[in-house]
Amino acid sequence: MSATSLLRSGFETGGIPIGQDVLSPRVIYQNPTPRQLANHLFPLTHQGNGISTETNEERQVKLMKDLLSRYTQNLPPPKSNKPQPLHEGQTVLLTGTTGSLGAYMLDRLCRMDSVKRIVALNRGQDGGRSRQPSINTFRNLTLDFSKVEFLESDLSKPDLGLGQDNKYNQLLATADRIVHNAWPVNFNISVASFEPHIRGVRHLIDFAAVAAKAVVLVFISSIGELDGWPSERGPVPEQRIDELTLAQMGYGRSKLVGSLMVATAAKQSDIPAASVRAGQIAGPERKEGIWNPQEFLPSLVASSVYLGILPESLGPFQVVDRIPVEDVAELTLDIAGATLPVSTSEISGYFHAVNPATTEWSELAVAIKDFYGDRIAKLVSLEEFVVRLEESSTKGTDVEKNPGVKLIDTYRSFLAAEQAGHGHVTFETTRTKALSPTARRLGKITPELMKNWCEQWGF
Ligand SMILES: NC(=O)c1ccc[n+]([C@@H]2O[C@H](COP(=O)([O-])OP(=O)(O)OC[C@H]3O[C@@H](n4cnc5c(N)ncnc54)[C@H](OP(=O)(O)O)[C@@H]3O)[C@@H](O)[C@H]2O)c1
Question: What residue stretches are annotated with the Thioester reductase (TE) domain (predicted)?
Answer without folding.
Answer: 94-330
